[in-house]
Amino acid sequence: MLELRRSLDRGYANHGGLKSYHTFSFGEYYDPVYEEYGPLRVINEDRLKPGKGYETAAPPDMEILTYMLAGELEHRDSFGNTCVIRPGSMQRWSAGTGATQSELNPSSSQEAHLLQIWIRPAAPGLTSGYEHRHFSADERRGRLQLAVSPTGEDGAVRIQQDARVYIGCLNGAERAEFEVGKGRRAYAHVASGSIAVNETRLNAGDGVKITKPGRFALQSGRAAEVLVFDLP
């Protein structure tokens, strides 16, 4: 039921101003076993040096999510959206054909630490768009807070795919359970700290595929921040 992906087994790229760990195949890194998982195409753990950023080109027909862990990231796009996102914020950039964006660490001294996530939409011809939402520490504490969904319930940002992303911060006796439905799959990624998925201990950067329906528990956290993906 659980297929582990340890942090040290991920791909790695050092571009000077950007250092990135790749859970799935990305750029020059290719792993035929971890090319994608259902519509989940990318989980990159990125660290941007002060004043550095990403290129403006974006892949067409891709839901691009950014979850901030530390520092700040300034987003600008061809639709006129401008925003600085901070820790606890989930950003959604729907990259349709012809859309461009640029993202920059605006700080002069602090590194930006974030997860960049790509999810394939349910159908080609994605409508471009932008949205972001900040989730407070209280919303994320001791539970799994819905952050991304196709309908935007509970304040989640919307994506054009039957997928959901939950975020949670758990420590000590705090515990959260998650049900994988019939015909569904899940992926849990530890952004920071350490936590047990059922009885399997995961540390920062580790992930696990949940390949069969059933209930699993996130427990015995040690300052853990975790993302759970509910996927078709």
Number of strands: 20
Mean pLDDT: 95
Distance between the termini: 16 Å
Q: What would you report as the Rg, rounded to the nearest angstrom?
A: 17 Å
By helix and strand content, what is the structural category?
A: mainly beta
Order of helical and strand elements: EEEEEEEEEEEEHEEEEEEEE
Q: Which stretches of 5+ consecutive residues score pLDDT under 50?
A: none
Q: What is the highest CATH level, the class?
A: Mainly Beta
Question: Could you please describe the fold and organization of this structure?
Answer:
With 232 residues, this protein is mainly β. The chain is built from one helix and 20 strands. It has a single domain (2-231), classed as Sandwich (Jelly Rolls). The strands form three sheets. Strands 1, 13, 14, 15, 16, 17, 18, 19 and 20 form a nine-stranded mixed beta sheet that branches. A seven-stranded antiparallel beta sheet has the order 2-3-4-11-6-9-12, with no helix packed on it. A four-stranded antiparallel beta sheet has the order 5-10-7-8, with no helix packed on it. A hairpin with a 3-residue loop joins β2 (11-14) and β3. The model has no long low-confidence stretch (mean pLDDT 95).
What does this entry show, briefly?
The chain is mainly β and 232 residues long. It is built from 1 helix and 20 strands. It has one helix at residues 137-140; strands at 2-5, 11-14, 18-22, 40-48, 53-54, 62-70, 73-77, 82-85, 89-95, 101-104, 112-119, 129-134, 145-149, 157-158, 164-172, 176-180, 185-197, 200-203, 207-210, 214-231.
